[in-house]
């Protein structure tokens, strides 16, 4: 794999590299780690890459790698830049025949999103978006249970993503690179918290329930003086089957770490999953005792079992879930290279279509928040 | 005390009696336990009351008790009937000089609520409404912390009250008295879940934060076919200081017991309290480790200390919190009878004004849910 | 009921009174609240008792009450004094025909314990010992599950009772009445922590499992300089069926509140109960998902259902469990007075035999701790 | 790195490989994955190794690799075989100049352990033992807090390692390779559960507290009929500073997953850590509210910060902790190769001395369990 972005000081680049490395199936062979060539070079050296595979920019990387013989050149591109820098390398990679793994949200705006979707369809290349939370075994268990009707018809969904790290104007501090681009409309897009983490919540809710949001009513806020994008948002949801929901995401919920969680209630029971204790899935029933399903314990669905690596009680976390996206992508890519169908249990990673949906969500919650009309179609 | 309602099969009547009895400060001396005289009589006997203090209806009780000598006659009236039967006995009690403890919500509709408020102001009599969840020590600790500025300016409030017991059409079963009147517009009023438990959530949020809701946007639903009132509701909130919030209450959140909980986030930190583990108050800070404050441990505010009865680690629950409403009412009543001021720490129980506010909340969420206008003033 | 002890400043006296009052089945009619007559009198007045039913000592109370007509005189005696003052009033009450509820441990030493056991057998009077933790609904559920074989043959039992309140030499402070007598061999007996709370753990383990301890190996310690009795103890256990166990109790486990808890493992599954979250019973299975049984949810055993008062999710705590001992005692006493058999589900409170067993446990752990022999018979 | 053992069907070999791969600092370059050459070869192929670096046995691997030029040959050997096969490859690796990472327990018996200790001292080579639980950030935080005196003098330690997976005679099933060798005295040594997981508990207690066990009294059991080694053990501990403790480990605690946990109480406070929720460290104080320290939140000790990879709230688990052993080993090895001192914060992995201590623990608990003498020196 070749990486675009993820030089020193980046958070998510290192995550992608660890996720890719974990299973011994993917090797980092080249990269354009920064728009600053010296920085890119230093990053490449720290990653033990040969100097001739460390490039000064993504254009160079894609063109040069393309000229290397098959088997030697990178098999796909991983894009871990800020939002406004997803489109360029993704487009060029696709146009030059390289599959892509891209960080979320898909792009800077809807136009870019649609163009990438078009290119993926046109080229037929694999494209994964790292909505990494869908990689957890217990998330897959929840999805399988609902698909299998265990909870009956779904009535209510509550999905939350509270963080507190932007409770102060962190973006004003030097060296707070993460805060800086996420709160900058020129790099992040039209939304702040909603784009960064609200889309994870939206994706998780639709992934687990298999239901699509059909209408929404949003109330976004910017609590920190001088901040240019939303740092908190509360959204009422209608789903296509008649289910109702609430989605809220926040980066000013002081003291919260990364508490993505979801509750889904159907006619027969409800379930709850929290990212910060990801190996438990609490299931409550109308007429039976509450159960706590655990990664690796008892009769889980094949989808859940296939995404755990070690026996029950040895906690698997964020990196392992992230690695499941990479592993599944690699499994599918290898199958394709070998001209066979992959095991369907691994045919599960977020795609460019999820990315388009996420961008659409961003657009609609911003539009709704500015509107006096109660419900907007989604 | 004399009780109106609360005969056999009633849930909340027994709760009121246990709450009143716990501290040995209040004695049940008479009652009109049912509109059916035989039933009332049987209930009185089961409660070891002398037959001459068990009345066939509340009118009789109030008139006869009034004629008994002071010291012998009941000191106040406790009203534990369904919503549509609060107004009659409350009005008559006040008009005849008896203080009142009344179950929530205050009344059947706004007109009744205003009339009771007027009467309380006119007579100057004590009137308590059993929004019992404000009786928990850790709720009082949360309120004191926020009032004292420990969390800084409040930005976000999330209050939830999920239950699952009405996931099926329980009201159709004979003997499901509790389900039956709560889902009947003739007895419950214009709202179902929102009236029964949404008002508890609204009251708790305003009590803990000291902030008033200024605008709301509601989405109520009836999920169970044939049910006449809402069984689920999601509400976006604006508070007068600029804080934003979410309130949701549900009786179809399958598998949930009685999971009232609240999270409040300010500029400096956040706190979380759950009714089902009421002796813990989780406090999270921007720059310090999370704390778990516990009933009876360390330096709590006087308001919290005064409402616990036993040393830390001996769990106090729902009845003890409910008993705090009764105990405080009794302390204030006794002080008044003795012509002195009560210790201010006990001057804390929900009043008729909280009741009017609750009724107003019911009216507004129903109105908002039926409106295409996004925000309604509250 | 008439009370011996429990004047101002006492902890457990107030607990007994609240427990007795909760269900409206028991009335406090008289008391000898202190060995200091003025103190007793003041306590009686604060409890709204008529002065002529407040006695200067227990001898006077028992003799005078005996002379009152049936129906007016107290029906039983409740003894809430420190350990060394249980025997006198208990013996005299029994000898004069009064049933007894006595705080634990039963007595100051084995001789007293055997004598009380003999008297109970001779008189046939009811005698309850307030090992109150057996009053929790989920403890009764655990017992019923094990008795019914749900866990299979029991193999391992871990019971713990950590507290931290005696981490410093609290007994040296004036006004620390609770610490003072508990650490005084003249009032507490030969054991400190082991007598005060170790016996609760022993009783709980035998109650829940239905197994008797057959051998033990103890290691008691006194960590606080100058303290005269043990403040910590660790004990290995053998049970009569071959099960193995661990019991530890401590009053120097700094920061712990009152964390009595037990885990029991059988061939088919294990269960866990914690006093500080008493409405949950965690059950883990070999081949099935973990369950969390909850007071009031689903199909519990009749013993569990009969000892809860309010619907699921309204937490019931320490006082409610304590009240179950009093309620069951009252139910049995009333049945006996009316010449009928009580409902067997209520025929469940700790007796003088549990008390003798507890005293024996105290003796054996002290003996074992001083011995170089590994195992002592129990 | 070159690996000995860890072919298909092995649990711990894959764990070591993922742990080694995570940080991109260590590359698997060769292996002798099985004593069966075909199996070794197939494993090597599945791991994308060139056939000429996959060896039929460890002797061949060590000798051939030694002849490769520096920079090309493996830098160290990782041994992931069952207990009885640690000694051979470890000894030969050391004798041929290769540093070693070895799974625990160190060896089959004490003689082997002492010989390895002697060789490590003689050669001066790095030797790490994968007591992986010491790799968790919050374990390092606990150790630093205690070393820094935050809890005061330590009084009591409770360390537990309950599992339930050997509740039935799993070793009789074909394909249960993990169960089979662990319960076989010829491969596991003189202890079963105590060797496999009891040593982890012993190591964790001594690591966190910095105290050494000085005496012990053990009670080992074999509950499953026909099993040849202990499957449960309860041990009383004395520590050199006067602290008392309890250690229990079990593989028949039905329903338990891998619940290693420890509580440590000092004069000023206590702390609790559970492996299954490894990112929280609960700290309780005598006079302050309980705190929950979290990986990545607030002011942790440098040792804790250096061993976390991602921001707070993104759970890191077992593999990340395991990877910390490998990463620290790699950091120290690289520093040594470059002739400089490593950052002391990384100079932290279990050594051959910890391994000798673990083997000694195994010997003593077995001896104690068979003895009628209460205390044995350790």
Any overview of this molecule?
4 copies of one chain form a homotetramer. The longest helix of chain A is centred in the C-terminal third of the chain and has 20 residues, at 318-337. Chain A is built from 12 helices and 14 strands. Chain A is 35% helix and 19% strand. Chain A starts with a strand and ends with a strand. The mean pLDDT of chain A is 96. Chain A has 378 residues and is of the alpha/beta class. Chains in contact: A-B, A-C, A-D, B-C, B-D, C-D. Strand 13 of chain B pairs antiparallel with strand 13 (290-294) of chain D, so a sheet runs across the interface.
Can you tell me the overall shape of chain A? globular
Biggest contact:
A-B, 44 and 44 residues
Widest sheet, order of strands of chain A: 13-12-11-10-6-9-8-7-14
Topology of chain A as a string of helices (H) and strands (E): EHEHHEHEHEHEHHHEEEEEEEHHHE
C-alpha Rg of chain A, in Å? 21 Å
Q: What's the CATH first level of the largest domain in chain A? A: Alpha Beta
- CATH hierarchy: architecture of the largest domain in chain A: 2-Layer Sandwich
Distance between the termini of chain A: 36 Å
CATH topology of the largest domain in chain A: Dihydrodipicolinate Reductase, domain 2
Instruction: Please give the oligomerization state of what you see.
Output: homotetramer
Alpha-beta classification of chain A = alpha/beta
Helix content of chain A: 25-40%
Report the total helices of chain A.
12
- Strand portion of chain A, in percent? 15-25%
Low-confidence stretches of chain A: none
CATH superfamily of the largest domain in chain A: Dihydrodipicolinate Reductase, domain 2
**Overall number of structural domains of chain A:** 2
- The number of strands of chain A is 14
């Amino acid at each position: 794999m070749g990486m675009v972005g993820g030089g020193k000081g980046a958070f998510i680049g290192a995550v992608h590299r660890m996720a890719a490395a974990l299973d011994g199936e993917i090797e980092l062979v080249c990269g354009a780690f920064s728009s600053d060539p010296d920085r890119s070079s230093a990053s490449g050296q720290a990653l033990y890459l040969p100097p001739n595979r460390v490039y000064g920019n993504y254009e160079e990387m894609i063109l040069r790698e393309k000229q290397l013989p098959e088997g030697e050149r990178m098999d796909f591109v991983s894009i871990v830049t800020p939002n406004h820098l997803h489109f360029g390398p993704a487009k060029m990679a696709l146009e030059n025949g390289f599959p892509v793994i891209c960080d979320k949200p898909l792009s800077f705006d809807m136009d870019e999103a649609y163009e990438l979707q078009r290119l993926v369809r046109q080229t037929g290349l694999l494209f994964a978006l790292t909505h990494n939370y869908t990689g957890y075994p217990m998330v897959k268990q929840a999805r399988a249970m609902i698909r299998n009707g265990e909870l009956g018809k779904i009535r209510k969904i509550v999905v939350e993503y509270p963080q507190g790290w932007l409770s102060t104007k962190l973006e004003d501090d030097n060296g707070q690179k993460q805060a800086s681009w996420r709160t900058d409309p020129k790099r992040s897009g039209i939304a702040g918290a909603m784009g960064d983490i609200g889309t994870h919540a939206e994706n998780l809710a639709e992934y687990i329930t298999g239901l699509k949001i059909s209408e929404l009513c949003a109330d976004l806020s910017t609590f920190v003086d001088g901040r240019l994008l939303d740092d908190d948002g509360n959204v009422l949801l209608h789903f296509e089957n008649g289910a109702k929901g609430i989605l809220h995401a926040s980066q000013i919920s002081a003291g919260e770490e990364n508490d993505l969680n979801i509750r889904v209630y159907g006619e027969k029971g409800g379930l709850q999953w929290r990212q910060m204790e990801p190996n438990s899935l609490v299931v409550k029933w109308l007429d039976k005792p509450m159960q706590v399903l655990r990664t690796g314990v008892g009769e889980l669905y094949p989808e859940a079992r296939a995404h755990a690596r070690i026996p029950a009680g040895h906690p698997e976390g964020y990196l392992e879930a992230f690695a499941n996206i990479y592993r599944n992508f690699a499994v599918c890519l290898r199958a394709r290279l070998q001209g066979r169908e992959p095991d369907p249990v691994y045919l599960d990673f977020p795609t460019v279509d999820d990315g388009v949906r996420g961008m659409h969500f961003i657009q609609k919650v911003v539009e709704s928040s500015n509107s006096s009309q109660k419900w907007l179609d989604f």
